[in-house]
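Data card: per-record layout.
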Amino acid sequence: MTTMPPYAEYGNHEPILPTPVDRSNAELPIGLETRLRLYRLQQEIRLFEKRAYDLFLRGLVKGTSHLSLGQEAIAAGFGAAMRSDDWTFATYRGHAHTLARGVPMSPVMAELLGRANGLLGGKGGSMHLTSVEHGMMGSYAIIGAHLCVANGAAWTAQYNQTGQVAVAFFGDGTTNIGAFHEALNFAKVWNLPTVFVCENNLYMEYTAIGHAAAVPNPAADRAAAYGLESILVDGNDADAVYSVASRALELARSGGGPSLIEARTYRHGGHSRADPGKYRPQQEIDAWMDRDPIPMYHQRLLELGVDEGELSGISTQTAAAVETATQSAIDGPMPDLASIYTDVWANGGWEWRN
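The structure for this 354-residue chain is written out next.
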């Protein structure tokens, strides 16, 4: 009988400490205006997610939610690099990607509270945020399913020669799902303009990815099997993410085919709001908190000559926007019971079946 090694026991493994990632991915020149946008996006995501957590504790966010606290640089980097008509496909941890595509805070916050003025009328909730108008093509709760859907969108762009790119974000655990391998193989065979982005926060729910993957880097180390370049980027460095995103998007847009990017990062909390994250060693948490993407980026901007007052102004404006969104959500009406019959069938109502 095969037994698991001691380090795989719940809450008993060696700390997974930050390791240096090659910053050559960050060599792309980035203008100050773009850098300030990256900073603002990270601040918006951070303060929004903190407020979402507070509202959850107050019992206003029903069900669970999956926050991106600590992972803001990935959504910000891609959000700033993507074209307005590109497509984002996200997981249930999709608040950050929704905001990064320009969806206003108020309808997103109202959706978390299940209100009629929510992004989806209160019917989608935290795990299904979608705004086709902004290129946010959905948050998917079925692990890996959206990678194949992203390929479908990419194929339409290829067929219609629109230059659009489909970007699919997923967690490290998805790399062990069949759809991950099928989607990569299909995208490469058909030379599709799809960019696959693994947000490797080191844990698949409660289990360290190293206990379930045969290679150290679960996405980057598997790229060669599909004829793709192995790309590993510091997911806590917004400049590095923006640079690697820009290159992958341009490659896809110019007919160069798909890319697979692994962004190494760390979530500050547990997998979801129902998870206290006690299985993670404190030494590990402390080490990664020292690599919080927002203080690091704040310091970088100061070193580049940006005035502290300008950065404080961005924080103040963002905090005010979160307050407005919160009040709008709390004051929003509950959905009318009749709305349960809408958005069910092709014509928007249940009568289609009758």
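Known properties of this structure: The beta strands are 87-91, 136-140, 166-171, 194-200, 203-204, 207-208, 231-234, 259-264. Residues 22-325 form a domain with the Rossmann fold fold (CATH 3.40.50.970).

See the next section for split statistics.
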